[in-house]
Amino acid sequence: MSYIPGWAVFGQAGIALLFPLLANILYKGLYSLVGSGRAVESPGTKNANPSKGQSASQAGVDPAPAPREFSGDYAADLSYIKSTIGRNSDLHFKEFTMTRVQRQAVLIFVDGMQDDRQLNLQILQYLMNEATAESLSAQGMSGPGLPFSQLSEASDLTLFNQSVLFGHAGLLVEGLPQGLLIEPPASTDRTLGEPVSEALLRGPRLGFSEVLSVNTSILRRQGFNDQLEMISYRAGTRIQRDIVLAYMKDIVNPELLKEVETRISKLDIDFLAESGYIEQLIEDNYLSPFQQVQNTERPDRVINALLEGRIAILLDGTPFALIVPVTFSMLLQSPEDYYERWLPSSLIRMLRFAATFMALMAPALYISFISFHPGLIPTELALSIIETRQNVPFPSVIEVLILEISIEILREAGIRLPKPVGPAMGIVGGLIIGDAAVNAGIVSPFLVIVVAVTAISSFSIPMYSAGLTLRLLRFVGMGFAAFLGMFGTILFFLLICSHLTRLKSFGVPYLTPVSPFRLSDWKDLFFRSPLSLMKRRPVMMKTQNSRRKS
Amino acid sequence: MYRRLLPLILCLSLLAATQTGCWSSKEIEDLALYTGLALDKGELTKAEQELEDKGITYSKQNKITATIQVIPVKTTGSKDKQGGQQGTPYQNVSGTGDSLLEIFRQYSIRNERPIVGHHLKVIVISAELLKQQSIGQLMDFVLRDNDIRPSSMVFISQGRAEETMVSKRSDEVPSVHIRQMLRNRSRTSKVLSPMILSKLDALIHSKRSFALQNLVTADGETEFAGAAVVKGGTGHWVGNLNQEDTECLSWLTGKGDTGVIKAYDWDNEPMTYEMKAMKSKIKARSDGDKIRFEVSIETEGRLIETWNTSSILSSGDNTEKAAKLFEEKLKQMMEHMISKLQQDYKADVAGFGDALSIQQPRAWKKVEDHWDEVFSRARISFKYDLKITDFGSFTE
Amino acid sequence: MFTRTDDKITATQAAVFLNNTVLGAGILTLPRGVSEAVKTPDSWLSVTLGGIIVMAVVTLMVKISQQFPGKTIFQYAGRIVGRVPGAVLCLLLVLYFLILAGFEIRSLAEVTLFFLLEGTPIWAIVLPFIWAGTYLVYGGINSIARVFQIVFPISIMILMICYALSFRLFDIDNLRPVLGNGIMPVIRGLKSTVLVYSGCEVILTLVAFMQKPGQAVKTMLIGIGIPVGLYLLTVVMVIGGLSIDSVITSTWPTIDLIRSFEISGFLFERMEFPLMVIWLMQMFCNFCSFFFQASLGLSQILKLKVHPVIYMLVPVIFISAMIPKTVNEVFSLGDFIGRMGLVLFLLLPVLLSIIWLIRTKGLKQHV
């Protein structure tokens, strides 16, 4: 049997088996190791104590430590409050007597969180001079009796404490069983401005701000509609923050909504500093280099997504809203595509796809052509490359790495630099270093073109985070190319394809509508067909209501 | 478990990375691309002669001398190029032996860069060598090699082939120059349609005769001059066709539809016909064993130049007369070419065999093996149709 | 259902799946294979004729699979011919898929070694390729079908561009005379054409995965029709461009055709680069398809989970790819596969359907 191969082949076969096995074990191991911190993986047990609010907003919250009930006794409650949070120097206790009913009361507020004038002039004046017994009677508790627009009662002392420290003005009146919370914190908000990360030439110059209520109001202000529903949650085991889910009630697929609700309710972390935390905690596969949640500062983008049947997640304290589910093509779309006319928009969109491809593959292709396949490039190009590379002492991989890494450093530095210095830095880095490196014979001029085109291409991607992914993968691709040339590059491409097809964002395959193929969704993929043609919402979202036009 | 596994995997991958490396990776600037290859009768170069005198050689017969044209020449210290003498942008390397690959490998013990054939454009074989060796032998390696593209073109040179790889002008590469000269086929049919390797492969394999473009070098300049006929059965060079024959060959095979015909008119002044369209059709007829061909040639064109100032050409009568004269000239040229092919070379390079095989496959089957013989005896009749459509921007 | 959990594929995906399974190594070798057997320019007739025969067999395969909705051949073969013979048949089929997978990888490696990576050890090409395939196959039929959907349009587009550009070499005389030597050479060529269609057997399992098995006949005929058309185009373009004599002597005639011209002034002067790219991707699809079928078959016959089977098959496929020692052995392996394919491919469905017909119609048994 001369056909039985030698021992070496069997050895290699062993390696062939070993590698995927090890990779699998490693993957699973990593997943279980890291996954233990993930709420989705450990369904709501352990110390996961998420607080799901009722849909009413900001009421009925039960914080983590055992709440202490109001005793009903004014003095005892006041002394409890003083003993727990009284040491804060910015906390003010304004004790006074209500003259009409002759009761003791105390107004508790944090310095700077309330409009002082209003506090002194109106609230105190009213309480001291005008408040009557009827308006404080038990029935009038939550509202009509007291002339405050925002008034709620704290169910327990702990919540009362937290709310006061968050900026509410707390009112404790002798004889009332519970503390009242009046006047939400005055917004110490910046003025609304144009979103920095997603600048457009045409389109609303309005971005989200850091205050949740402002953000939700911006969404509401998009237009008259009674189907836009917003549900608020509160998450965070140590410091709690408000999260709002926004969706169109008659469009969104209920199963998707349920899935998102489940994931949100399982958030398990002590503090959500930014919506990026939520993103990373609810995404399907955190080992994937691709983001499975889209973030945006633009309300118009959010509202359009909602109309497609997607769900937006807004977090207090950050201007970045999240949109789920996301598909790959969304990362390359910009709201402007829809604002401009369809022909130029379509062309620009295709340009972006091409740019993405270049940003991902250009250095890898360069390496494979220069180091592996001189026979695949045109003769004249080959000649000019040879001439320019004759003084370069490095193999192309090292050459590319040098330049790519310096570009990456430059980029990173450019973000940190103060605004006036940034562009200067770009010029210094891009032009001078590039030119000097060529003159010094470290890199070839041809490579400078390649790297520059790559960098510019990656800037043309409308989503910053998608650009990050590509930057990361570019280096992987270069590695593949350095090993196996063209073959490696193709392998890399196939691996990315394999990975993308396996990836899902909230149950929606990441590459829809390319694959699985949905022809009707192609109207809004590589090109943006005229608006009159887009009669239906994306099929992939399986919306309740599919027609955009009546 | 993973704590222990992880370092192991790291070590393994490190080992793999260091031990494997990039096997096929060769930087492009470390390679010597050759764009031209010239094959000559074996004749030792000066350096080789000296080496041989010193007894440094290997077992070989000096049957062929292969010259490759390497570009670009490595310029070290390109900064002070202006100071030194301007060298040529190419470098010719020659070697002698009896195996093309062995000669190629022999270059590697003399040069610092390995040669690669991805960019080979032009192969020139000297007619002398082709008398000695068959084209199949010479082209075998070139056809087998994985680097050399089948799009490389093959030419024959009248003199030594390596001379075509030298140019007087210092700024151009002769092999690229030859390749680019082919663009002029839009102006003249004296240049045959280029013979690329894959076509040559088919011709060699089917043992057909064929014509290759001839190159002649004079005073450091290379010119396309006629065609060389390679006999199918033997694969040897048998003779040349002159420029006019080559032109006729192009027209006949339908590969060329440009060119001029010059004739002398009734006052013995030259007049020139510029071809605008050319159609030729070969009809094969076989009655029994007799094979005969009817060729019809139709052409249209304009009378573009005449030195005759006395008579007006555009008058109907004279136009007819002029057309007749051109037809006569064309007939002369064609018949000269055909007689050369049939009588002198006994080689069908004009595609009569193809016509027969397509139109009369049965008859072709019978004569396939000794086609060139049959061809030389076949009767070929011509029918011409030459039309003068206009007179340029003159009305007369 | 918003999130689909069932492993079903749509009609489009099924058609693309079949196309990408069949379209592969043949693009580069078919013109030579057929021409060697036919020896006249009538090869394209052989390919067409072979395509028609294959289409008939495909219809038969679909029909029989439709009798057992949701069941693959590995599950229903036993019910038709009895458990043991059924298992033997299925194991034979699995073996066939494994050899095919090995063959595909090996021819890929040979082409890569010859044109792209001279000097790289063969295992360095084969191993990463198998691993990438494993990753994809691990994702199940849906992932595979989706990758196919991405690769398919790219391949078709680039293949068409390559052929369109090679039109400059095309000479209709190279394809003439039609039937100069009668019909016999065409018949002789049929055998080698069937080889390129080997892989059609995936239909026997593919129908089970379809969301709407009712459309299977149309879908599969489209799925096989595309490769038939492309192979026909390949043969016509290659023989028309290179002539029959050149095709017979060339190892990879299609690459030779594409290498025979240069388009100066074009971004890629040399079209073999895109051709190699799509061919490699197509081979990847081929390989993954067979790998998947083999692992599916083995897991269903032996009633194992599919993931361990996938791992088990990795070294087996590697060894089956390494068994041929020379390129000529690779080609003779290809011929062997062609013959084996002929048996499995014609015999299996015909045999199964006859037995099934006898048992249901003749003996009125309930199968």
Automatic annotation (TrEMBL), chain A:
> Under the cellular component aspect of Gene Ontology, which terms does the record hold?
membrane
Q: What GO biological process terms are annotated to this protein in UniProt?
A: spore germination
Spans through the membrane: 311-332, 353-372, 446-465, 472-496
Q: Locations of Polar residues compositional bias?
A: 44-58
In residue numbers, the region (Disordered) covers: 41-67
UniProt cross-references to InterPro entries, sorted A to Z: Spore_Ger (IPR004995), UPF0353/GerABKA_families (IPR050768)
Alphabetized, the UniProt keywords read: Membrane, Transmembrane, Transmembrane helix
Q: Does the keyword Cytoplasm apply?
A: no
Query: Family per UniProt?
Result: Belongs to the GerABKA family.
Q: What PANTHER family does this protein map onto?
A: LEUCINE ZIPPER PROTEIN 4, SPORE GERMINATION PROTEIN
Q: What is this protein called?
A: Spore germination protein
TrEMBL record, chain B:
> Signal: present as a keyword of the record?
yes
- Which parts of the sequence belong to the Spore germination protein N-terminal domain? 25-207
Q: Which Pfam families match?
A: Spore_GerAC, Spore_GerAC_N
From the record, what ranges are coiled-coil? none
- Which UniProt keywords are present, listed alphabetically? Germination, Lipoprotein, Membrane, Palmitate, Signal
GO BP terms: spore germination
Cellular component terms per the entry's GO annotation: membrane
Location in the cell: Membrane
Q: Which InterPro entries match?
A: GerAC_N (IPR057336), Spore_GerAC-like (IPR008844), Spore_GerAC-like_C (IPR046953), Spore_GerAC_C_sf (IPR038501)
Q: How does it sit in the membrane?
A: Lipid-anchor
Q: Is-annotated flag, keyword rRNA-binding?
A: no
The positions making up the signal sequence are 1-16
Q: What is its main location?
A: membrane
Q: Which residues does the UniProt record annotate as the domain Spore germination GerAC-like C-terminal?
A: 226-392
Which family does the entry's similarity section mention? Belongs to the GerABKC lipoprotein family.
Q: What is the name of this protein?
A: Spore germination protein
Q: Which organism is it from?
A: Paenibacillus typhae
TrEMBL record, chain C:
- GO biological process terms held by the UniProt record: spore germination
Domain of life where this protein originates: Bacteria
Protein's cellular compartments:
Membrane
TM helices/strands, residue ranges: 12-31, 43-64, 84-103, 115-138, 150-170, 190-209, 221-244, 273-292, 304-324, 336-358
Residue runs in coiled coils? none
List the GO terms this entry assigns under cellular component, sorted alphabetically: membrane
Q: Does the keyword Transport apply?
A: yes
Alphabetically ordered keywords of this record: Germination, Membrane, Transmembrane, Transmembrane helix, Transport
Q: Known Pfam families for this protein?
A: Spore_permease
Q: How does it sit in the membrane?
A: Multi-pass membrane protein
Q: Which InterPro entries match?
A: Spore_GerAB
Q: Does the keyword Transmembrane helix apply?
A: yes
**Similarity comment text for this entry:** Belongs to the amino acid-polyamine-organocation (APC) superfamily. Spore germination protein (SGP) (TC 2.A.3.9) family.
Q: Which NCBIfam families would you find in this protein's record?
A: 2A0309
Q: What is this protein called?
A: Spore germination protein
UniProt organism field = Paenibacillus typhae
